[in-house]
Each structure stands twice: as structure tokens, then as C-alpha cells.
Design a protein that fits this description.
Blueprint: H1 15-20, E1 31-38, E2 44-46, E3 54-57, H2 58-71, E4 75-80, H3 98-110, E5 115-120, E6 134-135, E7 138-139, H4 141-158, E8 162-165, H5 172-182, E9 191-196, H6 203-209, H7 229-241, E10 245-249, H8 255-264, E11 269-273, H9 275-286, H10 292-306, E12 310-313, H11 316-323
Parallel strand pairs: 1-3, 1-4, 1-12, 4-5, 5-8, 9-10, 10-11, 11-12
Antiparallel strand pairs: 2-3, 6-7
Helix pairs in contact: 2-3, 3-4, 4-5, 8-10
This protein binds ligand PBG.
């Protein structure tokens, strides 16, 4: 059937009709808010490249969590800024690690009403800023698996609800699954950063997390932005190794990867709309060049339309407020 019998504009006539035939929707439950936790008390150190985001000490982090819950955000993704760093990231593997402390405090105050997702990686904890142990100028895959597994176990012990490895070492999901299962955490899910690209969009995060590599870059472990078939191989392997949720990161320049994953696998998909995606919108809005709220909501719906079930975004709180109106 074609024009003039078919007129697609008929269903666009008014908002009720448009909403009735809307193919995609967005809920606060879909969103995860990333937070940065640092040592001390009463510390709120704004991240200049990510307006509205700060490094927070545990006491203030709890206040932020309370505000998130109030608007309907029920999940947070935690990153730590440790007191000191070392060659291998051992500082992230102990009971007193900064994220471990934060998770215990969150669990004590909010119990199961707030879901804690613990990022597992070494880059915030190593002196050189790379995601693992360096041998001959590059990150050694299999040595790094040991610290990653220890870090994951320690985070699970502290009460993390989901373990989210973001390092891109081969075999890490399997190693983490093994150590969790061996230690009574068989019910703790793994959200794997499966297709994580070596991206310029992480720039502002590295200021936020103080995790800029001191030499070289991450191209020997993160994916080449030119590749899509390889992302499917990464995802297939992570699922085989025991991932419960797979993640595509960044999101907006990789919506094709999200869609391809949706069409090829039947597993929950998380999209990480990263710091650069957030900061670009903030900067343009601050200049009066775009309508921030409209663009923010359009970004969210585009990730859902591409096939994301879960969206990790620094806009989470702001989006929830719009949804609550
Ligand atoms: C750590 C990690 C990074 C991000 C999340 N986990 C940075 C990186 O890989 O350099 C980026 C998040 C963002 O930009 O919002 N491995």
C-alpha cells in the first residue's frame, strides 16, 4: 500500500497518538549513575570537565545516593580514587580499598534498595595508569588476571551486587567467575565491558578518575574503533566465559554495535554513554548552542532504540527528573 492510501503522518497528529505508537520507552530503572569516591570526609571535589560531577568522600557519596533514590535511580557504578597507587594495583584488592569502604557504607545505609555495580580495573590504582601489570612496556594479560580476580573477589566480599570488569584483558570474565564461584559468590552477576573501544571519548573521565596512562595508550588492549566483527567475537567469548550482561562502550558512536549485538545474541545489553559524550553536550549547552534537555533525552532514546536494555550515563539523575515530570 502506498500514498495516498498510506499516509504515515496520520499517526503523528497529536502527542497521545504519537506516544501510543512509540516503539521505544525509557524508565529510570534502566539507568545507572557512575560515581567517583575518594578518601576523607566532607570532600566534594568538582570535576571541571564534567559539570555536576564530583569526587566524593564516602559520607557525601551516601548523600548523593539518597538523592538518586529519591528521583528513582536505583543503581550506581562505582569508581575509586585511592589514597596511594602501586605498580600492580594491589591497593584495589584489599578490605580497606576505597570502593570496598563505599560499598559497605552504601549497603549499611540503603541495604538492597540501591544496587551497587563495582567497576573492576587497575587503571585508577596503578602508578603508570595502565589497566594492568606492565612487562616489557605493555600490559601483561595473564599476570593482570590475578589482580583483577582478587579485586573482584574483594569487592564481592564488601557487598557489591554486580561485578563489572572494564580492563579488556583476555579471559578475565572466566577468571572472575571462577574465583567468585569458589568463594560462595555464585549468585553475583558479571556485567562485562565486552566491546570497549580505545576511544577519545574517555578524556574527561581520566581527569575524574585520575587514570591517564603515563606512557603510551590503551590500544594494545582496548578495541580498534574500525571493528565490528571483532566486537561480536569479544561478546561471544564473554558470554561463553560467564558474562550475565554485556556492555558496549562508548555508546553514541557505536550504536551499530549495540544493534548488531541485539540481533545476534539474546542477553541483556548495557550501553555506556561515556564522559566525552556527556561533556560535549554540557559544553555546547553552556554556550547556548543546543537544547540540553532535548538532546539528552534524544541520546537516551537512541540507545534504547539501538537495543540497549541498560544505560550507564552521567545524565542519570537529570533524566530521571525529566521522566518524573
Ligand atoms: C577504566 C575505565 C574507563 C572508563 C570506564 N572505566 C577509562 C578508560 O578505559 O580509559 C571510561 C568512562 C568514561 O569515559 O565515562 N578502565
Amino acid at each position: 500500500m502506498s500514498f495516498p492510501i498510506t499516509r504515515l503522518r496520520r499517526l503523528r497528529k497529536n502527542p497521545i497518538l504519537r506516544n501510543m505508537v512509540s516503539e521505544t520507552s525509557l524508565r529510570a530503572e534502566d539507568l545507572i549513575m557512575p560515581l567517583f569516591v575518594c578518601p576523607g570526609t566532607q570532600i566534594n571535589k568538582p570535576i571541571s570537565s564534567m559539570p555536576g560531577n564530583s569526587q566524593l568522600s564516602v559520607d557525601l557519596l551516601l548523600e548523593e545516593c539518597a538523592q538518586l533514590l529519591e528521583v528513582g535511580i536505583k543503581s550506581v557504578l562505582l569508581f575509586g580514587i585511592p589514597e596511594s597507587k602501586d605498580e600492580h594495583g594491589h591497593v584495589a584488592c584489599g578490605h580497606n580499598g576505597i570502593v570496598q569502604q563505599a560499598i559497605r557504607a552504601i549497603k549499611e545505609r540503603f541495604g538492597d534498595t540501591l544496587l551497587t555495580v563495582a567497576d573492576v580495573c587497575n587503571c585508577e590504582y596503578t602508578t603508570h595508569g595502565h589497566c594492568g601489570t606492565i612487562v616489557d612496556g605493555d600490559v601483561d594479560n595473564d599476570l593482570t588476571l590475578v589482580t583483577l580476580a582478587n579485586q573482584a573477589l574483594s569487592l564481592a566480599h564488601s557487598g557489591a551486587d554486580i561485578i563489572a570488569p572494564s580492563d579488556m584483558m583476555d579471559g578475565r570474565v572466566q577468571k572472575i567467575r571462577e574465583i567468585l564461584d569458589l568463594n560462595g559468590f555464585g549468585q553475583t552477576p558479571i556485567m562485562a565491558y565486552s566491546a570497549k573501544y580505545a576511544s577519545g571519548f574517555y578524556g574527561p573521565f581520566r581527569e575524574a578518575a585520575e587514570s591517564t596512562p603515563q606512557f603510551g595508550d590503551r590500544r594494545s588492549y582496548q578495541m580498534n574503533p574500525a571493528n565490528s566483527d571483532e566486537a561480536m567475537r569479544e561478546i561471544a567469548l564473554d558470554i561463553e566465559e560467564g558474562a550475565d550482561i554485556v556492555m558496549i562502550k562508548p555508546a553514541l558512536s557505536y550504536l551499530d554495535i549495540i544493534r548488531r549485538t541485539k540481533d545476534s545474541f539474546n542477553i541483556p545489553i548495557a550501553a555506556y554513554s561515556v564522559s566525552g559524550e556527556f561533556s560535549m553536550v554540557k559544553a555546547a549547552a553552556a554556550n547556548g548552542w543546543i537544547d540540553e534537555e532535548r538532546i539528552m533525552m534524544e541520546m537516551m532514546i537512541s540507545m534504547k532504540r539501538a537495543g540497549a536494555d541498560i544505560i550507564i550515563t552521567y545524565f542519570a539523575k537529570q533524566v530521571a527528573k525529566v521522566l518524573n515530570r
